[in-house]
Amino acid sequence: MMKKLISSVTSLMVAGALFAGAPAVANTDAKNISEQPPRDLLENVVYEKEYWEFLLENHPVFQYEKEGRLIGNIHLSDRQEEFIDFRSADVYAERHPELDRAAVTYRLGKETFLDFPNKYVGPKTCGECHPAQYEKWTRSRHANTLRFPDEMVEIEKFGLEDLNSPVFPEVGPASILPEGVTADAVYAVIGTPRTKYGFLDAYLVRGTYHVRDGLLSEGTGTIVAGTNQFSRGWAESITPEVAKQIASYVEGFPTTIEEFAKKGTTGSDVWGVTSYGSNFENKFMFQPASSYCEVCHTMKFNFANKDEFFDALGDAKKLQDATISRGISCEECHGAGGHMVDGNGGGMPSNCERCHQRFVWNEVAQERDERNPFNSYFKSSCPSCGTEGSQMYFSEHYSKGMRCTTCHDPHEVTKNDWTSNVTYAGMKKTCEDCHSVQAEFYANSGKHQAGGCRGCHMPNLGSCENFATIQFPDQAGFDNVRASHIWNIKVDKDAKTLNPPEGEPRENTVKGWTIARDDNNNNYLDLMWSCGRTAFADASVLDGGGCHSPVQSKLPKSLHFENQEQVYERVMKWQTPVKDGYDHVRNTLKQIDNKIGKANLTNSEKAKILGLARQARDIADKVEKDGAWGAHGARYTQRLMDEAVVYVDEAAALMKL
């Protein structure tokens, strides 16, 4: 079997270069005066060669397999697969003969943890001279995307004995680390209390498995594919009782762990623990952190050379002691050493887009607009984590020049306590800074003010856990923990934000879902996501008393929206009279403008008519600029429009129209 595995991984490497001993191809296009020009995409793939050779020879999973103590098939996943083969990147490259290859979904950092020695100094060194930025950063989730087991403050926060204790025992046995994987066998835990927990084992390999009837650290028991990632939404909020409540109006929603496994494609045998990167008892990825995790959950070591690195692999403590930087730290954006090394200056060799702009090439998008042949990356029927930037890319905000740092302070992404189950972002700008007219209407919206602008315009839409691929976008749920960055709401009874490939059923196991676009080629949100979603990690829903979710809402039952048609009917009750009044005002104003010059009126009469018309026009202009036609404040908008109608009707009466 080992020979077969080596053969499999060989086929994954570019042109067999890794295991055929072929040298990396020089980047002949690079015009760089440095003695070591930057690696191109192929060279980055080939750079994994020795690491892969070591893992295939030494990682315990292969010993388990050799001894017949492994349930599930191993799928070897490397940089070739993730960066070049993944999500039609090869098809996109074929359409551009000038490109030998392309990475569509993922971006490489300037350096990898396989660079020895690196020039990283670590965030503490940066903090010595930049204390204000460092202070903000330490409170951010960016600083905590990857932590050592002994740094898990959650043990005290949740009153746990260890990382294998049930976090919410009243719901089920879900724990931060899965069965048979103890803290001493783990280099680091990935994730925070808001969403999920995964792990990197002592060989820096993504944990897509658990160990049954034994311990990984002792090499005992059986390695089993799946049931490997703690998912808070399911472990705490979507309890079996809540699942039954959801099933009462969502046909087919599973209510037992067995039904989850049957309905989805990944399965699990522990409520609240997902099979991430794997299928329960069937197939799992063997994937080094260099192939995937380090793109966003980074780590850098102070090893002088690769021999020191290989000597430490398998010993979690050695790796931890040699870690100089981890998480989204200063140097991930500003470069190794920042301005302290080789006169690099405080530049930005990487930015938000590396982790938050995950695209896929899409043939339908290509046919619609050759200039924008992309959509956001989906795992199943909801856009994945890290797609905020690709959502924003197809928005009016982006086309007008807005970028991540227009609104966000990258040093303080998280405003509230990062250990909370929700995120309040630290904002440099808010919606009302640019949308003053809309802010005026919204200030008169009554109870809707509780959720803020983001409550309707930035619903939690993206997935992070993908529990057994159970997602029902038409009912706006339920595995949605990432705020959308689309803003544009389409008022339509049938239009859906999230859609399967043309002609495919709207079942959540179908691959190839995309975000819909309007006539201006901008993404849009449908009414169900804006108003009726069920989202347990969405601060807007929680602040808004559950909004209109049939599960979370504290409003009267008549305001619980189970489908989009119900939302549409409610919005029409607001918008129809406002639009009717607006049309009446505009048509009457047009008549006044056409006839006032010919009318037999005194100057005093003309002045009064024009004054009334101006007041009506000002209101109509304001309502039009607001653009919500009552949705930002139904009663307030209607009062304004009624006032405008009175003005034009009085003016028309004076002119005897």
Protein traits:
alpha+beta, 29 helices, Butyryl-CoA Dehydrogenase, subunit A, domain 3, heme, Multihaem_cyt_sf, heme binding, single chain, oxidoreductase activity, 657 residues, signal, three-stranded mixed β-sheet, elongated, five-stranded antiparallel β-sheet
Overview of this protein structure:
The chain is an alpha+beta fold. Among the domains are: 41-80 and 146-296, no CATH class; 411-560, no CATH class; 567-655, Butyryl-CoA Dehydrogenase, subunit A, domain 3 (Up-down Bundle). It contains 29 helices and 19 strands. It has a 5-stranded antiparallel sheet. The longest helix is centred in the C-terminal third of the chain and has 32 residues, at 564-595. It is elongated and about 100 Å long. It starts with a helix and ends with a helix. The model is unreliable at 1-34 (pLDDT under 50).
Head-to-tail CA distance between termini: 91 Å
Strand content of the residues, in percent? Answer: 5-15%
Q: Quick one: overall form? A: elongated
Which regions are unreliable across 5 or more consecutive residues at pLDDT < 50?
1-34
Specify the structural class.
alpha+beta
InterPro entries: Cyt_c-552/4 (IPR023155), Cyt_c-like_dom (IPR009056), Multihaem_cyt_sf (IPR036280), Multiheme_Cytochr_ET (IPR051829), Paired_CXXCH_1 (IPR010177)
Signal peptide: 1-26
Organism: Ferrimonas marina
Protein name: Cytochrome c7
